[in-house]
Amino acid sequence: MAARAGSWSEPGAELVAPGVHRIPLPLPDELAAVNVYALERPDGLTLIDSGQALRRARDDLKDALASLGYALGDVREFLITHAHRDHYTLGPLVRRDHGSRVRIGIREAPALAAVGNPDWPAYVSQLALLRANGAEALADEIGDDARAQGIAAHQWEAPDSWIVDDEIIEVGERRLQAIPTPGHTQGHLVFHDEQADLLFAGDHVLPHITPSIGLEPVPGRSPLRDFLGALRRVRRLPDALLLPAHGPVSPSSHARVDELLRHHDERLRNTLAAVRAGRTTGFEVAAKLPWTRRQAALDELPVFHQMLAVVETSAHLELLVEQNLLTQTFDSGVVTYVSREAEQ
């Protein structure tokens, strides 16, 4: 179907497939918006993702639904791809007023338990990773800012039920398969409509940016390995219309998955080369690599994005250790890496 004129993040509703509407909701950061997908069903709507708990987002959702002839009270169910604020927190607010059901993958239970604890410090796992990767000064600089970005524990209400891996969810006559795609978070799901050739990809496959790896309160042991494995599983599915959480709809899920796999292959090669050239900590390696489409240096990024860069670099280094290309040692709480070639 023809794309709507203008930016993908402009408010409103766009028909992207029969019975499926894309509704971008505003975010207070550089992502600009998150796409919520409204799926028609005989008794109302199912929404894939819900948006962030912001008054403007709620108002934009209400207005977009009204343009389609629906109200917030017609939302019967939210199917949430993962437990990030911009995907999850508006759903429970709508539920309070209208009784909508909220569902999310069962592997997100540890994350929701953590962020729902008022004593859990925001980004504590990522700040610990910074220090373990030799970025003590960056961790100190970003600490207060990172904690300020946390969301109050009371906004992280529990779901009504958990979605299990590969569950088939019926939305009217539509059948969605909830496919586990860990990496961005451990419990991330994509929803695949095989009959209609649609992939509701959440943050797993984004058209213009590479998803952050392991950005969650309780990261997995090897989030990059998980992410790449999940990408390969999605690649084995039939090609589909890519319906991402951020950015415009794209015609081919396969094409973008191939690009992401090539990107991480190149990143692994460049990470290994940086260690072979004498960089020994995650922070040193991240400072050697270019970032974003602008090929920016690490210190040119905002400090929060510097944190994401070092955390992602750590994930690449850990995978290279698993592949027996690097070894790691621990000294005074800092991990250092050396290539196996250098040890021989």
Question: What brief labels describe this structure?
Answer:
Sec-metab_biosynth-thioest, 36% helix, single chain, Metallo-B-lactamas, Arc Repressor Mutant, subunit A, 344 residues, 2 domains, hydrolase activity, Metallo-beta-lactamase, Chain A, MBL fold metallo-hydrolase, 22% strand, alpha/beta, five-stranded mixed sheet
Description of the structure:
Residues 33-246 form the Metallo-beta-lactamase domain. With 344 residues, the chain is an alpha/beta fold. The protein has two domains: 14-116 and 156-251, Ribonuclease Z/Hydroxyacylglutathione hydrolase-like (Metallo-beta-lactamase, Chain A, 4-Layer Sandwich); 122-152 and 265-344, Orthogonal Bundle (Arc Repressor Mutant, subunit A). Helix content is 36%, strand content 22%. It contains eleven helices and 14 strands. The strands form three sheets. A seven-stranded mixed β-sheet has the order 1-2-3-4-5-6-7. A five-stranded mixed β-sheet has the order 8-9-10-11-12, with no helix packed on it. A two-stranded antiparallel ribbon has the order 13-14. A hairpin with a 4-residue loop joins strand 10 and strand 11. Helix 6 crosses helix 10 (303-322) and helix 8 crosses helix 10.
